[in-house]
Each structure stands twice: as structure tokens, then as C-alpha cells.
Amino acid sequence: MPMSRTDRQPPAATGAAPTRPGWPEIVVGLVAFLLATAVVPFFGPLGLKLEPVPFGLILTAWSGVVGLVLTFVLLSVLTPIGEEFLFRGVIANALLRYGPVIGVLASAVIFALCHGTNLALPTALVVGIIAAEIMRRSGSIWPAVVVHAVNNLGLPLFVLITGATGPA
């Protein structure tokens, strides 16, 4: 017997195990990184300062392999886990009772504002929207963690490969 649209529930509500993150989440994370990077220049006229942002990753790289490994672990593993549990696991889930649009957008705005009104704001907003929607659709926090981790991994890899520390 086919299920009607009203009978369908997200995996978390049915008790089924949520899907594990895989290549689709990694691709979405890379797309989020590229979209967020493309959006940044449009925020200059809105009063956000687009001065060079010192990320300090070159300095960390100079501190040796341990400093570099710690940067990657903290920035691309632990930070996404902590932030996703708070912003998607707690805030987005609480706001989803007001509907998917309010839940996704409001949690993404809160996420972006917590990153500061600087160059990170538009990037955090784009990543926040994508992560919240993926969490909502999958019923699991882990795909959002993977998207966030892939996005966060982009910056240290870029700095490591190019040696750049911010906009010229």
C-alpha cells in the first residue's frame, strides 16, 4: 500500500537509522564553499569591511607539523561537530516547529551572526542555509557536519597550497 504524503516522516521520526554521510555531502560541502566564496564580494557595498583577514595559518604552518595537524583537526573536525550540534541540533530543531523556511533561515542567520559581521558573515550564512536544509531533509546532524567540515577544510588547504593569507 503506497504511503500518502502526510504519512511520510523524516528518518529520525520513524526510528530508522539516518543515512550516513558520503560523497553527496562532500560534493555539497565543496559547492557550499564555492558559493560562499562567490557571494563575499557582493557584501562590500553593504558596509562590511573587505580588508585582509589574517587567518594565521601560515604562522601555524611555520610552527611545524604538530601545529599544522592541530589546525586541521580543530578547524575541520572539532569545530564543525560542536557548531553543528549547537546550531542545527539545538537551534534549527527548535525553530523547525515554526516551519521549514523559518527553521532553516533563522538558524542560518543566527549561525552567521555568531561568526561576526565581517568577511565570514556571508560565507557562514550560505553554509548555514545548506547545512540546515541537509539536516532537515536527512533527519540527521552528521551530513551537516560533513558539509561544514568540507567547507572549513577549504580555507586551510587553500592557504597551504597558495601561501595566501587573505584578500590582497
Description:
The protein has 168 residues and is mainly α. The chain has one domain (21-37, 56-162). It has helices at residues 11-14, 23-39, 57-62, 65-95, 100-114, 120-138, 142-162. α2 crosses α7 and α5 runs antiparallel to α6. The protein starts with 10 loop residues before the first helix and ends in a 6-residue tail after the last helix.
List keywords for this structure.
0% strand; single chain; 168 residues; mainly alpha; globular; 7 helices; 67% helix
Order of helical and strand elements: HHHHHHH
Low-pLDDT parts are 3-9, 48-55
The strand count comes to 0
The best one-word shape is globular
The rounded distance between the terminal residues' Cα atoms is: 61 Å
Mean pLDDT: 74
The largest sheet is: none
- DSSP summary: helix tally: 7
Computed CA radius of gyration, to the nearest angstrom: 17 Å
The total domain count is 1
The secondary structure category is mainly alpha
What is this entry, summarized?
The chain is mainly alpha-helical and 168 residues long. It has helices at 11-14, 23-39, 57-62, 65-95, 100-114, 120-138, 142-162. The protein has one domain.
Q: Topology, pairings included?
A:
Blueprint: H1 11-14, H2 23-39, H3 57-62, H4 65-95, H5 100-114, H6 120-138, H7 142-162
